[in-house]
């Protein structure tokens, strides 16, 4: 597992005080019940290419703020973001909230938690 710097972890922990998170089980229930939402994988393209949560779209952390308004113009849309371990997606959730998106959740464990629960991935 990648070791993160103290400064990065402090930033993420501070960010998590401002966002809402969701567990893999809660996300699976939303998907199974076809709840209206937009699931966004914020990992890099090479990570996306290894598999992603079904129904996801890909908008990497590096471009999401630039492209989100075109992809999801309604700021009330339920948006759930995820990355590999739950760190980058927390930062993205905070950023989207600052842009006026009011219904944003971050997958607290990232994709790894989804896999650990035994849920499947889709391939591109």
UniProtKB/TrEMBL annotation:
Q: Name one GO molecular function term.
A: thiosulfate-cyanide sulfurtransferase activity
- PROSITE patterns, alphabetically? RHODANESE_3
Which intervals hold domain Rhodanese?
A: 33-123
Q: Which residues form the signal peptide?
A: none
The protein's matches in SUPFAM superfamilies, at most eight in alphabetical order, are given as: Rhodanese/Cell cycle control phosphatase (SSF52821)
Quote the InterPro entries the UniProt record gives.
Answer: Rhodanese-like_dom (IPR001763), Rhodanese-like_dom_sf (IPR036873)
Q: What is this protein called?
A: Rhodanese domain protein
- Where, if anywhere, are coiled coils annotated? none
According to its UniProt entry, this protein's organism is Legionella wadsworthii
Q: Which CDD domains match?
A: RHOD
């Amino acid at each position: 597992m990648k070791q993160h710097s103290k400064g990065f972890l402090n930033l993420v922990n501070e960010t998590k005080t401002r966002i809402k998170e969701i567990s893999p089980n809660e996300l699976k229930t939303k998907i199974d019940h076809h709840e209206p939402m937009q699931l966004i994988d914020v990992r890099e393209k090479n990570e996306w290419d290894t598999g992603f949560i079904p129904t996801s779209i890909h908008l990497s952390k590096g471009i999401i703020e630039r492209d989100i308004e075109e992809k999801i113009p309604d700021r009330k849309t339920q948006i759930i973001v995820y990355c590999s371990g739950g760190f980058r997606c927390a930062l993205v959730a905070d950023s989207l909230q600052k842009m006026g998106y009011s219904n944003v959740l971050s997958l607290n464990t990232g994709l790894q938690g989804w896999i650990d629960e035994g849920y499947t991935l889709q391939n591109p």
